[in-house]
Design brief:
The structure is a single chain. Among the domains are: about 80 residues; about 120 residues, Serine Threonine Protein Phosphatase 5, Tetratricopeptide repeat (Alpha Horseshoe); about 50 residues, Winged helix-like DNA-binding domain superfamily/Winged helix DNA-binding domain (Arc Repressor Mutant, subunit A, Orthogonal Bundle), CATH 1.10.10. About 75% of the residues lie in helices and about 0% in strands. The model has no long low-confidence stretch (mean pLDDT about 90).
C-alpha cells in the first residue's frame, strides 16, 4: 500500500481479511478496503469484492454490502466467456447465502452449492455447513438443519471461527427450546456465550442472538435479573443486524421480543416487532420466521393497554446514534460521519432523550451509562 502497488495489495487483502477479522481487527480491514475502493483495486480481484460484501454486512452497513454484492453478481453472471475461478465462485456462493437476498429457498440452494464447491477444493471453513443448517431450519427441515449445524460446529472449533461457532450453538439451542429440552438449550446457550467471551469478541454481530437465547433460557428458570442484563447486552449491538443479514436480524429480534413479553415489557417487544416488519418488507421470503413473527404480533394484539416507551423501546437507529452522543462531535459533524441529514440526527436525538427520560445530550449519555447501554 505504501508503494502504491494496488494489485499486490489486493492479493494480500484477499488472503488476510478472514484471519484479521477473526482477530477482531475490523478498523484495519476497513482501512484496507477503503484504500482499494478509492483506487478501483478490486478490478481483476473479485475475491476482494466478495469478502467486502461479507465484511460490510457483518459491520451493519447494508448499503455498502449490497454495492459489493452487486459487483460480484456482475462479475459472475455478466460475462459468460470469463475464465473459471473456482475459489472465488465458492466464496460467492457463501456470500449469496449469508446475504439471503432472494429468500430462504434460494439461500438453501446457495448453501448446498457452497458446500459442494468447498468440498471439491478440499478447503475447510465452517460457513457453508452452518449456513446450510440455518437455511434448512428456516425451510422447515429441522433434522437436516441440526446435522449441518453440528458439522459446522466441528469445523468452527477446528479453525477458530468463534462467531460462526457461537451462532451455530445458538441455533441448536433454539432447536432444543422448540423440542422442550431446556437443559440442553441452556448448556448450548452458555457455551455460545463462553466462546465469544474467551475469544474477547463479545461485542459482535453474533452478540444479539447469543444474548436473546441466553435471556430465553435464564427466564425459563426464573432469573429475571439475568434476563434483563442479557436484553441490555443485545440492545447495545442490535443495530449491527440489518437487512444485509436478514435471517439473523429477524430471528434475533423475534427471540428478544419473546423475552421482553416474558418480563412484561410490551413497549420493548412492540419496538422489536416494528423492526421485524420493516425487515420482512425488504426480505419477505424468510420461511418459518414469517409465521413466528405473525404469532408474536397476534400475542401483542391481545394486550392493547397503552405502554410508555422507555429505554427498551429505542430504535436501531437511535442505538446507532447513542455512542456518537458521548463523543465531542457536534450534531452536524455526527450527521456527516453517519451519512445522514442534520434534521434526522436531531429528530433521533430528541426521541432518544424522551425515551430515556432526559432533556439534554449529557443527561442522555449519563443515563445510558447507568442502564449499561454505554460503557463508562
Amino acid at each position: 500500500m505504501a508503494a502504491g502497488d494496488v494489485d499486490t495489495a489486493a492479493v494480500l487483502v484477499a488472503k488476510l481479511v478472514i484471519p484479521t477479522h477473526r482477530q477482531g481487527r475490523v478498523t484495519t480491514i476497513q482501512r484496507w478496503l477503503r484504500w482499494l475502493d478509492d483506487r478501483s483495486g478490486t478490478e481483476g480481484h473479485p475475491t476482494v469484492a466478495v469478502l467486502a460484501a461479507l465484511f460490510w454486512a457483518l459491520m451493519g452497513r447494508p448499503v455498502e454490502s449490497e454495492r459489493w454484492a452487486d459487483a460480484v453478481d456482475r462479475w459472475q453472471y455478466g460475462d459468460p466467456a470469463r475464465p473459471s475461478d473456482p475459489s472465488t465462485e465458492a466464496w460467492a456462493a457463501v456470500m449469496r447465502t449469508f446475504l439471503c437476498r432472494r429468500g430462504v429457498e434460494q439461500m438453501r440452494a446457495d448453501a448446498d452449492e457452497a458446500v459442494r464447491r468447498f468440498a471439491a477444493q478440499s478447503f475447510v471453513t465452517p460457513a457453508p455447513a452452518f449456513l446450510q443448517g440455518i437455511a434448512r431450519v428456516l425451510c422447515g427441515d429441522l433434522d437436516g438443519g441440526d446435522a449441518s449445524l453440528e458439522d459446522g460446529i466441528s469445523v468452527a472449533e477446528e479453525v477458530g471461527a468463534h462467531e460462526d461457532l457461537a451462532i451455530a450453538l445458538c441455533e441448536r439451542s433454539l432447536a432444543a427450546i422448540a423440542s422442550g429440552d431446556w437443559g440442553r438449550a441452556e448448556a448450548l446457550a452458555e457455551r455460545a456465550r463462553t466462546v465469544l467471551r474467551q475469544a474477547g469478541i463479545e461485542e459482535s454481530y453474533a452478540t444479539p442472538l447469543v444474548s436473546a437465547v441466553q435471556a430465553r433460557t435464564v427466564l425459563h428458570r426464573g432469573d429475571l435479573s439475568a434476563a434483563r442484563r442479557e436484553l441490555v447486552s443485545a440492545q447495545r449491538l442490535r443495530h449491527l443486524l440489518t437487512y444485509a443479514l436478514p435471517y439473523l436480524a429477524v430471528q434475533a429480534r423475534i427471540e428478544l421480543a419473546r423475552a421482553h413479553i416474558a418480563v412484561a415489557d410490551l413497549a420493548g417487544a412492540r419496538m422489536l416487532m416494528r423492526e421485524v416488519d420493516d425487515l420482512l418488507r425488504r426480505r419477505p421470503g424468510l420461511g418459518t420466521l414469517v409465521d413466528e413473527a405473525r404469532a408474536i404480533r397476534a400475542c401483542l394484539a391481545k394486550n392493547r393497554d397503552p405502554t410508555i416507551a422507555g429505554a427498551s423501546a429505542l430504535t436501531a437507529a437511535e442505538l446507532r446514534l447513542l455512542p456518537m452522543l458521548s463523543t465531542h462531535l457536534s450534531f452536524p459533524e455526527i450527521a456527516e460521519e453517519m451519512f445522514l441529514s442534520r434534521h434526522t440526527i436531531k429528530s433521533e436525538a430528541i426521541s432518544l432523550y424522551r425515551k430515556l427520560g432526559t432533556s439534554s445530550r449529557s443527561q442522555a449519555v449519563a443515563r445510558s451509562r447507568e442502564l449499561g447501554l454505554l460503557d463508562g
